[in-house]
Specification:
single chain; 436 residues; alpha/beta; Rossmann fold; N-(1-d-carboxylethyl)-l-norvaline Dehydrogenase, domain 2; 3 domains; elongated; binds uridine-5'-diphosphate-glucuronic acid
Length: 436
């Protein structure tokens, strides 16, 4: 059993802190936001993540998981300190490191015994070393030792608990073998593969992995755009490509581009890191630009289906950047809906979970409805932006009755082209033949 403090009870901190407690450790999750801590203490979870609420309750009840805004006390009471605070995008695309630095100062001031400081936040290469320096400058007793470790997070929103409990690999970059071994031992109950390297490489692995996945997505979206023009079907192309184990079948789903809190931020940050280091990472810049353009392919398809958008009612299904989350950060809907409105359309929208979060961002552009059916009623076309199972499984016969014309533009390839043809829909999807 380890005594762990996780500083930052956002998405990453809360999920990993809870999972560390689930495998038997005593974990204190901290946050500077007292409202968040008060909520968590009452068993309320500030984010939507399947299974998290139950797991938090289970571990709080077992006296293994605690919440506090007294960060200094929590640090003093623990041997392993995870830094899991945000690294938002700065003005030039760089990662804003002010929260990480602030935590490092606090750790320095409260370094009362040997501790291992672990970075879980996605941070530019060299941050571990900066954290080490800041702690050295701020520690009161220079004889108290510490180690710094980079142990990046690879969780996906919407399946974070599952990803953490069945972790594919743990990347550990450390300033000493002793610290690396202790963090590796901490992960033993997860029965995962441990990959040990130095601090800088561990930090780089996180950016490289996300940038590579983003590249896969932009690549398959490019292939999809070609497929449409030459009569191929991107679903089959991706399946055929994916059989090559060097390529792999995952992350080859064509659509309206990646969103979320990670890929957009991390690709920008890596491009900035490269620039600063004197390398023009033009491939990565193209990945980012292609992703921006991909969002608008569904707007063009709507134009093709409807002639023009002026005065047309569009029923938008799905607002979150992907299913099983209420996260609206860099969601394609944030670009697409204002564009539809700019072109004169009127938007009625529905999302199973993210409606409130969406309202906070672009409420002025659309009207939202409590049910999918209400949103579609009287619309000239349906536009799918997120592949929630409720949307994939919707009653298509009913949808046909609700719309004024049977037109669906599907940004997530939720339905088979054959079925839509049989059901006599006008159906535009991504990278597959249009049914007109
Ligand atoms: C991503 C990574 O998958 C995690 O490994 C990583 O830990 C996380 O970022 C992070 O850095 O914290 P996440 O942003 O939760 O996780 O979501 P993903 O499931 O990876 O999806 C990202 C975006 O790519 C979504 O908008 C999704 O719709 C899109 N996507 C994904 C595609 O368009 N096609 C695909 O084939 C896969």
């Amino acid at each position: 059993m380890e005594k762990i403090t996780v500083v930052g009870s956002g998405y990453v901190g809360l999920v990993s802190g809870t999972c560390f407690s689930e495998i038997g450790n005593r974990v204190i999750c901290c946050d500077v936001d007292p409202f968040k801590i008060a909520m968590l203490r009452k068993g309320e979870i500030p984010i939507y993540e399947p299974g998290l609420k139950e797991l938090v309750k289970k571990n709080v009840d077992a006296d293994r998981l605690f919440f506090t805004s007294e960060i200094g006390d929590a640090i003093e009471a623990s041997d392993i300190i995870y830094i899991a605070v945000g690294t938002p995008m700065g003005d030039n695309g760089e990662a804003d490191m002010r929260y990480v630095h602030e935590v490092a100062r606090t750790i320095g001031k409260h370094l009362n015994s040997y501790k291992i400081i672990v970075n879980k936040s996605t941070v530019p290469v060299g941050t571990g070393e900066q954290v080490r320096q800041i702690i050295m400058e701020n520690r009161k007793n220079r004889f108290v030792q510490f180690d710094v470790v980079s142990n990046p997070e690879f969780l996906r929103e919407g399946s974070a608990i599952e990803d953490c409990m069945n972790m594919e690999r743990a990347v550990i970059g450390a300033t000493s073998d002793k610290a690396a071994k202790r963090i590796a031992d901490l992960h033993a109950p997860f029965r995962t593969r441990i990959f040990q390297t130095n601090l800088e490489s561990a930090e780089m692995i996180k950016y490289a992995a996300n940038a590579f996945l983003a590249t896969k997505i932009s690549f398959i979206n490019g292939i999809a755009n070609v497929c449409e023009r030459v009569g191929a079907d991107v679903t089959s192309v991706a399946a055929g490509m994916g059989l090559d184990s060097r390529i792999g079948a995952k992350f080859l789903q064509a659509g309206i581009g990646y969103g979320g809190s990670c890929f957009p931020k991390d690709t920008f940050a890596l491009s900035y890191i490269a620039e600063e280091a004197g390398f023009d990472f033009s491939l990565l810049k193209s990945v980012i630009a292609a992703n921006d353009e991909q969002r608008l392919v569904v707007v063009d398809k709507l134009k093709q289906a409807l002639g023009c958008l002026e005065g047309k009612k569009i029923g938008v299904l799905g607002l979150a950047f992907k299913p099983n989350t209420d996260d609206m950060r860099y969601a394609p809907s944030l670009t697409i809906i204002p564009e539809l409105v700019r072109l004169g359309a009127y938007v009625r929208a529905y999302d199973p979970i993210a409606m409130q979060a969406a309202r906070n961002q672009i409420a002025e552009y659309y009207e939202d409805f409590e049910t999918l059916e209400e949103a579609l009623e009287g619309c000239d076309a349906c536009l799918i932006l997120t592949e929630w199972s409720e949307i994939v499984e919707m009653d298509l016969a009913r949808v046909k009755q609700l719309l004024t014309a049977p037109i669906i533009v599907d940004g997530r390839n939720c339905f088979s082209v054959r079925e839509m043809k049989e059901r006599e829909f006008v159906y535009y999807s991504v990278g597959r033949p249009a049914v007109t």
